[in-house]
Inverse folding.
């Protein structure tokens, strides 16, 4: 809301009328047109409860054809829309900035096909990530991404934010694993790019435009994605390091000694481990890690690393992992740690890492910065931020160290503009100076639509705006997000 107060609602956008409602009821039926207060309150508010829109209408199409009819009509009426998946986005992209019509993809959640040899999955965009993970598990495959929001986020939202997550180190970006998309454009055109081929070099590969476009270029209605085979041997260890330099040495050692079986390398600092709610969880976890002494007493260590290996031979993998751990201990890269003995212990270790965002939300207000930074420099920013803020806020750092992705979170009892002014623009200027990215995986949304210049050149941003104007000339798709709104107001 504070962000939207800086921007003005575009006067050329219409407001919904009774004729509009009749039209939508006619194509979607009563159940596809939602106006009840309680539901609207939820879908107007983002996961962090930081952004709140004033939409009076949510539409729930069930087919790409219905999405096409909705967009064609909204385009002709100049009604702005915001596509919404699981509403777990963290940059204010999934909720209206003002009264945009919410187009929820949730009811488009069918699995269409799985090629059991190639592992190519075709499904509707509203499939929840966790459901796809479960479906594939029974078929001997895995999703090439996993994130803490898997219980709610949808594959269409994952594609639209080019989500990274906990397995990118092993399976790469969605730009590599997504083979095809069906997308509906602002004028209602249904773009069938739903190829299932690994190699297709016929013309411009347009699907990549929509991966990471955050609902600003089209609505994703179907996804075709390459899913890797599920392997039999998974090991998870949770290790403690005395300093950040040891974490970096450990990362290099893991890449060298674990090599092809390394499937995740996550880190969290003392500030993260010290979050009250996370500590409570650790106590809970340790209760049922019988006989495991607590290697996590936050007072003793400064950094924690979660390493996962995934391979096809338990004995081979354990031999590599044991050699790696022994070498790391002998060279003082780790000061303590546990190796999960079974799937329960493994998921408990993952829950500690995945539980940080929730723990932060319970601690009060949180300012989130999802940054790509050269790993050698990454923790310098955390320390500088700590000096800047002193006792006024708690600086918490964690993230996908294997990808050079820092999640810098500033935790305060409540949101406070004085704190914000000490963080921004410093954090963006620092990142830009170190040739980093001000958004590694969460996208730009509303929060950073005016910040893209810290990472992209003016010519690049202008070309993005030209593409946006070509595909959505009336600007009705997720306006005010991703790119500076000033590029779309008639000067
Ligand atoms: P939404 O939040 O509904 O929407 C996100 C954006 O995509 C919006 O701009 C929306 O307009 C657009 N959109 C959604 N669906 C469509 C569609 N079908 N067509 C076109 N546009 C669409 N993100 C990461 O990258 N890595 C992480 O590790 C990670 N961990 C998280 C952990 C937690 C606890 C939480 C709450 C979030 C986390 N996120 C992470 C952020 C978020 O989960 C991802 O951005 C996710 O991909 C959003 O999916 P969604 O379905 O919730 O999309
Ligand atoms: C993660 C989740 C959001 C955050 O946990 O990997 O992407 O920054 C984040 O808390
Ligand atoms: Zn993340």
């Amino acid at each position: 809301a504070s962000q939207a107060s800086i921007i003005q609602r575009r006067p050329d956008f219409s407001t919904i009328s009774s004729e509009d409602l009749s039209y939508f009821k006619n194509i979607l039926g009563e159940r596809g047109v939602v106006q009840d207060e309680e539901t609207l309150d939820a879908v107007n508010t983002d996961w962090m409860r930081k952004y709140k829109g004033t939409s009076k209408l949510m539409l729930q199409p069930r087919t790409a054809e219905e999405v096409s009819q909705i967009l064609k009509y909204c385009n002709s009426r100049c009604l702005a829309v915001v596509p919404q998946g699981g509403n777990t986005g963290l940059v204010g992209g999934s909720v209206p900035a003002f009264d945009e019509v919410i187009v929820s993809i949730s009811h488009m959640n069918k699995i269409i096909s799985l090629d059991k040899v190639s592992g190519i999955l075709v499904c509707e965009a509203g499939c929840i990530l966790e459901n796809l993970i479960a479906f594939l598990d029974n078929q001997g495959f895995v999703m090439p991404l996993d994130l803490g929001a898997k219980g709610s986020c949808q594959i269409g939202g994952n594609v639209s934010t080019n989500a990274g997550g906990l397995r990118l180190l092993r399976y790469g970006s969605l730009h590599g694993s997504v083979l095809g998309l069906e997308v509906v454009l602002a004028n209602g055109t249904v773009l069938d790019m739903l190829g299932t081929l690994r190699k297709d070099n016929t013309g411009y590969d347009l699907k990549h435009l929509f991966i990471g476009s955050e609902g600003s270029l089209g609505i994703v209605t179907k996804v075709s994605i390459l899913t890797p085979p599920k392997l039999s041997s998974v090991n998870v260890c949770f290790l403690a390091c005395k300093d950040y330099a040891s974490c970096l040495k450990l990362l290099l050692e893991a890449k060298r000694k674990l090599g092809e079986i390394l499937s995740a390398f996550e880190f969290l600092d003392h500030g993260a481990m010290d979050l009250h709610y996370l500590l409570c969880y650790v106590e809970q976890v340790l209760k049922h890690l019988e006989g495991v002494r607590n290697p996590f007493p936050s007072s003793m260590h400064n950094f924690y690393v979660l390493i996962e290996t995934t391979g096809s031979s338990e004995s081979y993998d354990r031999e590599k992992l044991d050699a790696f751990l022994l070498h790391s201990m002998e060279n003082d890269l780790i000061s303590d740690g546990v190796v999960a003995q079974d799937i329960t212990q493994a998921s408990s270790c993952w829950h500690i890492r995945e539980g940080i965002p929730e723990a932060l939300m319970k601690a009060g207000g949180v300012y989130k910065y999802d940054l790509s930074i050269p790993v050698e420099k990454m923790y310098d920013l955390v320390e500088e931020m700590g000096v800047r803020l002193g006792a006024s806020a708690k600086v918490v750092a964690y993230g996908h160290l294997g990808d050079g992705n820092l999640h810098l979170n500033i935790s305060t009892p409540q949101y406070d503009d004085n704190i914000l002014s000490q963080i921004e623009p410093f954090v963006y200027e620092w990142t830009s100076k170190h040739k980093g990215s001000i958004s590694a995986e969460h996208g730009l949304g509303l929060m950073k639509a005016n910040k893209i210049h810290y990472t992209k050149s003016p010519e690049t941003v202008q070309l993005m705006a030209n593409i946006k104007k070509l595909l959505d000339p009336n600007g009705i798709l997720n306006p005010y997000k991703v790119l500076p709104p000033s590029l779309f107001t008639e000067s």
User: Anything to note?
Assistant: The first strand starts at residue 33 and ends at 34.
